[in-house]
Design brief:
about 20% strand, alpha/beta, 3-stranded parallel beta sheet, globular, 5-stranded mixed beta sheet, about 260 residues
């Protein structure tokens, strides 16, 4: 899950079309899991949320609120319901479902005098926690775990099938500098620095770098696009949902659905 930015409106498309693409990606992902389960059981599914689920009201000095097609609370309701739909779809297909979430810049609760809220004061984190509350109330989801960052941390790290997967939104570093940032995290002995795989978003286009046996995968998104990027650079990235398989630190089967 990367940069849904529910509420964003561009090229005559908005939240309705984005939700449609999200649900199409969900259907395709479920179909892939069912195919994989016929070959060998998928023991763990990681539904990696790397942030910017909503357009929010803080980016571009608050200017994004002028072009959004949904209000802030409406954006949040849509995200919560979409996350619940993902859990409901995947939970019957695995014996372990992880939903880790890394806060994005559009998810920030507020900015004031050039400063942002604490890293974990995030609408992305809040939406995930409300999903966790709903699952607990519903019952029958004991094999599902929602994972949020430590206080003031913008990253989360999980283990699946012997692979350590780290997640960050990507606004911590300049475009194309993910591996350099990751190496510095390792030098500082931060937990994410020891991951086999780093997942990020933020830049809205696919980027795959495999260096020294460590994969950095920057995910594409399903939002309507960004006219300013098109007008500056010409064209836009492929839309879709990044999926892959991993075991013991290795990866295979990368597909954009």
């Amino acid at each position: 899950i990367a940069d849904w930015q529910i509420g964003k409106f561009a090229y005559g498309q908005g939240s309705e079309q984005t939700v449609g693409r999200i649900l199409d990606g969900l259907d395709a992902s479920v179909a892939r899991i069912k195919r994989e389960n016929k070959r060998r059981p998928i023991g763990t599914i990681v539904l990696a949320n790397v942030g910017d689920c909503i357009e929010g009201v803080v980016s571009q000095n608050g200017g994004v609120a002028l072009s959004s097609d949904l209000g802030l609370t409406e954006q949040l309701r849509v995200v919560r319901r979409l996350l619940l739909e993902h859990v409901k779809a995947f939970a019957p297909l695995t014996d372990r479902l992880l939903l880790p979430v890394a806060p994005g810049n559009h998810d920030q609760a507020y900015r004031l005098m050039g400063l942002a809220a604490a890293a974990t004061d995030s609408f992305a984190v809040d939406a995930a926690m409300q999903v966790a509350d709903a699952l607990e109330l519903a019952g029958g989801y004991d094999h599902v775990r929602v994972i949020t960052p430590d206080v003031d941390d913008l990253t989360v790290t999980v283990e699946a099938a012997g692979s350590v997967i780290g997640m960050a939104h990507g606004h911590q570093f300049r475009q194309g500098k993910g591996h350099e940032w990751w190496a510095k995290q390792g030098h500082a002995r931060h937990r994410i620095g020891q991951a086999h795989i780093l997942l990020t978003g933020h830049f809205h286009h696919l980027r795959i770098v495999d260096d020294s046996g460590r994969l950095w995968a920057q995910a594409c998104t399903v939002d309507p696009g960004s006219p300013w990027f098109d007008q500056r650079n010409g064209g836009g990235p492929q839309a879709g949902v990044l999926t892959f398989l991993t075991r013991d630190g290795a990866w295979t089967g990368l597909e954009i659905l």
